[in-house]
Amino acid sequence: MLTIDPKRSLLLVVDFQSRLMPAIHDSETAVRNANRLIEAAKLLGIPRLFTEQNAKGLGPTVADIPVEQDRLVHKQFFDACREDGFLDRVPADAHVVVAGCESHVCVQQTVLGLLQASRKTYIVRDALGSRHPEDKETAIRRMERHGTEIVTTEIVVFEWLQTSDNPHFRQTISIIK
């Protein structure tokens, strides 16, 4: 299957943290689109997983993003896959949809770790952030070269819906408009 399978999907929201976000280029767009993905995932029954990098130093996830504490992984490694138990929370056949910051550090290293662990990954270009646009674009190109798919928020939502007959179609469409 070339499209994202909603039955196998997992939304991974990486490090949208309070002390980091003021430095992120166009952070408002990344946060807004991450929230759209979270809302659509909840509505469609897609599991969610959140990470926080060195929360003592970078603070908690920004208040604008509704973190589910039982789905939060605290980490010190930039690559979440190196944290004990992280990969146990990502099914082997998962289609992992990734949003987060910083694109060229924690997102990239985590995606490369997921790919190395044979997980299918999709990075959501308009829900990623870095301090400098060139770091974001370079990371996107690198992750793509190693096998991740590049998507946008709307691509993800429509592939999760699959059909306009989906009973959650109207509610989901209102989230992305």
TrEMBL record:
Pfam families linked to this entry: Isochorismatase
Domain Isochorismatase-like residues, every copy: 9-154
Top-level division of the source organism's lineage: Bacteria
Database matches in InterPro entries: Isochorismatase-like_dom, Isochorismatase-like_sf, Isochorismatase_domain
Record-linked PANTHER family: HYDROLASE (PTHR14119), ISOCHORISMATASE DOMAIN-CONTAINING PROTEIN 2 (PTHR14119:SF3)
Protein name as annotated: Isochorismatase
